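Long-time lurker, first post. I've been practising inverse folding by hand and with some scripts of my own, and I keep getting stuck on stretches where the structure tokens seem ambiguous. Below is the full token string for one chain I'm working on. Before anyone asks, I'm not after the true native sequence, just a reasonable design that respects the backbone. If someone could post their per-position residues I'd love to compare against what I wrote down in my notebook.
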């Protein structure tokens, strides 16, 4: 043996043999033993059934939802995407995986959320049932419909700035030569400005500057500026989601520790962006804490989070670790939720706004019908019945638009086709359970594919078509369509882990879409006509949307 190892070639042989042995025991034996009884489900290929590599590649490609959609169309409504993970496209699975009773049946958030979290969990990432329900209850009022309505002046302030910018852009261009605007970027600025203010009482001023450059501060207090914050957020999330898909736990920890130390690699794959985004949120949080009380009656989201008593000393370990560690643990927990507010509160809504406008521009009949619904409600018309010329006067109030059925249908239809979170939200089964009638064993990770189930051909007529009418009109061929659209809708997920911020999102969508489509005529520039790209990270972000914009001619209304 000693002789064999003495030659370098033999050492290589030994290494290969050891690796093969390891692979056999770690990969092939479990596959053939099949303790989770998953071999009967079709997988895209052997790589997906044996390793997490297929899923990792799909995740890194930023086309995960569409790749999985193609595999579902090819293989059927339940597919195996990794050794222990099934993706369902059977609508019946929604209730079993995300419904109100799922938790009591032992179907809860997967360890994916631990891997996504840093050293503290935000509300989205908390997995423990009691801890989550306590934290959610403590801040629920901040996100309730009645609180959000009180935030209308804040939303209007940012909307006004958006309109002023668009008007300036139109006025600055010589006739017929207007350069197109990347409206997606401006909508991203809008939602970030809104969340800076509704979340922290600290507007970021991105629309005013037409740039997403802002202050950041490290934990130790060093301040610097981050430019292109939206890009930083997107690149950082792509990296975090990739890492969260890497198992087993020890490999995950190892990579998370090693990658940031290899600077070139870290900046290439977005690890440094996660630090920059965190530091932007630390700066916002510290400024908010220094400010003390919220400076308006409706408060801001951080106001509720800062007063939340569930981050008490016994929960965060003061009794065992002492006051210093407690303060640190509490700080990290607040940083986690500050990041959640900034990310979840802006990026998804920006995606929804962009998609809704894109679909309306692609579907002139839907746009015309929407304008018909809005026309009698236009605020501040002139004595001749024309549209108001001032930007401030042209903004719809929430009260005027909140119950408009066609406007809501236009928004819901775009969310159905392009869910801003198309990620297959993973849940871990901890007890034997039936999902969509199939027996699933503990240890299996299950999820529903939002992009696919929203387009299920058994539920909807021409499921890939944008047809807002389907939400409000009876269809004889699909008599249950209107009910099914709601019952099998997972845009905001369902059950106890459903989105807490949906009222704010819908509020912003209704007011902005109504105002923009009545004030402007827009045309998609050539490069955005054919397709609005989707980049799946955790959120599914649209690519650039270039539009040419002009004011609507009042006389034609
Ligand atoms: C169109 C916009 C939005 C969409 C499509 C959306 C979608 C979702 C989805 C699918 C989840 C479930 C995530 C999971 O299970 O892992 C979720 C959770 C959540 N969302 Fe949203 N969201 C939107 C806007 C917002 C806004 C504006 C906020 C905050 C201001 C927000 C805050 C949250 C929070 C805190 C959770 C975690 C809830 C919990 O686990 O108890 N979201 N959202």
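-- Answer (accepted) --
I ran through it position by position. Result:
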């Amino acid at each position: 043996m000693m002789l064999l190892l003495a030659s370098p070639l033999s050492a290589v042989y030994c290494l290969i043999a050891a690796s093969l042995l390891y692979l056999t025991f770690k990969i092939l034996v479990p596959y053939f033993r099949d303790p989770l009884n998953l071999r009967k489900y079709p997988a895209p290929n052997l790589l997906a059934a044996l390793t997490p590599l297929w899923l990792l590649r799909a995740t890194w490609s930023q086309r995960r939802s569409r790749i999985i959609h193609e595999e579902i169309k090819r293989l059927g409504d339940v597919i195996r995407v990794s050794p222990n993970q099934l993706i369902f496209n059977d609508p019946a699975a929604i209730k079993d995986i995300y419904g109100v009773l799922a938790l009591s049946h032992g179907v809860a958030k997967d360890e994916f959320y631990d891997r996504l979290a840093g050293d503290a969990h935000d509300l989205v990432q908390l997995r423990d049932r009691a801890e989550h329900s306590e934290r959610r209850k403590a801040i629920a009022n901040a996100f309730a419909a009645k609180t959000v309505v009180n935030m209308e002046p804040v939303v209007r302030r940012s909307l006004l700035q958006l309109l002023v910018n668009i008007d300036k852009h139109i006025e600055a261009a010589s006739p017929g030569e207007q350069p197109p605007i990347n409206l997606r970027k401006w909508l991203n600025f809008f939602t970030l400005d809104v969340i800076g203010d509704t979340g922290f009482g600290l507007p970021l001023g991105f629309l005013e500057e037409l740039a997403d450059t802002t202050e950041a501060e490290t934990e130790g207090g060093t301040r610097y500026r981050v430019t292109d914050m939206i890009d930083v957020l997107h690149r950082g999330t792509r990296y975090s989601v990739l890492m969260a898909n890497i198992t087993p736990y020890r490999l995950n920890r190892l990579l998370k520790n090693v990658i940031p130390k290899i600077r070139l690699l870290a900046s290439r794959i977005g690890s440094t962006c996660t630090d920059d985004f965190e530091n932007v949120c630390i700066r916002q949080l510290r400024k908010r804490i220094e400010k003390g009380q919220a400076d308006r009656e409706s408060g801001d989201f951080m106001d509720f989070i800062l007063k939340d008593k569930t981050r008490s000393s016994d929960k965060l370990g003061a009794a065992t670790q002492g006051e210093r560690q407690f303060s640190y643990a509490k700080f990290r927990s607040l940083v986690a939720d500050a990041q959640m507010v900034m990310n979840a509160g802006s990026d998804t809504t920006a995606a929804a706004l962009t998609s809704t406008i894109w679909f309306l521009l692609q579907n002139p009949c839907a746009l015309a019908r929407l304008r018909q619904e809005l026309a009698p409600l236009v605020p501040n018309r002139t004595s001749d019945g024309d549209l108001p010329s001032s930007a401030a006067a042209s903004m719809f109030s929430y009260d005027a638009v909140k119950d408009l059925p066609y406007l809501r249908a236009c928004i819901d239809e775009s969310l159905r086709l392009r869910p801003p979170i198309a990620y297959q939200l993973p849940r871990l089964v901890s007890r034997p359970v039936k999902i969509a009638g199939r027996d699933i064993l503990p240890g299996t990770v299950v999820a529903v594919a939002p992009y696919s189930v929203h387009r299920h051909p058994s539920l909807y007529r021409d499921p890939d078509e944008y047809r807002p009418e389907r939400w409000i009109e009876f269809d004889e061929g699909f008599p249950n369509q209107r009910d099914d659209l709601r019952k099998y809708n997972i845009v905001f997920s369902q059950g106890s882990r459903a989105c807490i911020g949906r009222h704010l999102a819908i509020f912003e969508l209704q007011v902005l879409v109504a105002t923009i489509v009545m004030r402007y005529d827009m045309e998609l520039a050539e490069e955005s006509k054919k397709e609005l790209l989707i980049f799946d990270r955790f959120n599914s972000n649209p690519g650039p949307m270039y539009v040419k914009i002009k004011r609507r001619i009042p006389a034609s209304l």
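A couple of notes from the structure itself: Residues 126 and 132 are 6 Å apart (CA to CA). The chain is about 55% helix and 10% strand. Happy to go over any region you disagree with.
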